[in-house]
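User: Quick sanity check before I run a bigger batch. Here is a single chain. Can you write out its predicted 3D structure?
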Amino acid sequence: MTAARIAILPGDGIGPEVVDAAVLVLRAAAEQFKLSLQFSTHAIGAAAVARYGDPFPPDTRAGVQAADAVLLGAVGDPSLDSAPRPLKPESGLLALRALLGVYANLRPVAIHPSLITSSPIRPERLQGTDLLIVRELTGGLYYGEPRSNDGDTAVNTLRYTREEITRVAHLAFKAARGRRRRLVSVDKANVLETSQLWRQVVTDVARGYPDVELEHLYVDYAAMRLVSDPSSIDVLLTENMFGDILSDEAAVLAGSLGLLPSASLGNGPGLYEPIHGSAPPLAGKDVANPIGTIASGAMLLRYSLGAGKAAEAIEAAVAGALAAGARTRDIAREGDVVLGTRAMAERVALLVGAA
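Assistant: Done. Predicted structure follows.
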């Protein structure tokens, strides 16, 4: 059997710890389901700047292009906040997404029953919440040109093409067909011309999916709906910056940023990462929650390797560990036994091995 090639990009801060945790669980799944996985590790972000003077060096570019899938920890380091843009860790991340052509970011948000009281949102509002955010990932303000900052005036360009919107809309409608067949498209069409195009194109694409109910929302109202009536949302489709903000807001529903995974898909290798940042103050302390990265590994198995049963086993193991009271510091309540990053991963891996 040919081994599936997985490029590991640990990144910065807590990235190496949560990625090591996810690899532990992936190895357990590979053994249990007779999968052949080959891992290679490459630097990105501040770690790559320190070693190569480049947040996305040539070796890493070659490694991800040769891979079947990419697992990323997180990038970011406050010591580079004032660095020139080409040396910022985030520039490496944007270059990685552009190289892979991963135009659609999928961020599922579901509430583990055992954690329903961990969110600041009242439990009765959270009942039945199971949504998927589909964020356009390679267009909009983050990539638009021109961009500049001369110290007195700064410019960013918000740009979208019909093609960019069409391809991510198709992916979102197909995802809705496999769920509850409802899609909310988020924009600011009362103010922005790009949003007017967005709404027009999504409406055009919707004609090919008559079985999916389409609703358009302005982003400000969508933000309110996410916390006031989250169970009413099935698939939420939006552009790059709005999706970045709304998906972090949605993490409040689950109770912690550390719980949520993501998959970035396009026409080549998929990119999988937790939605949280590098959290430098927590680095090296074995306290970070690895579940978001472990669940990202499950998405990697499902979307890039077609190993659905192994992905389901990991997701069931995460749910089982939480139901049995396994907690990291971010989701623990008074009286809970708190596990470290590695111990939580070992608990999940043990359950995967028993699947």
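Residues 104 and 136 are 5 Å apart (CA to CA).

User: Great, the batch can go ahead then.
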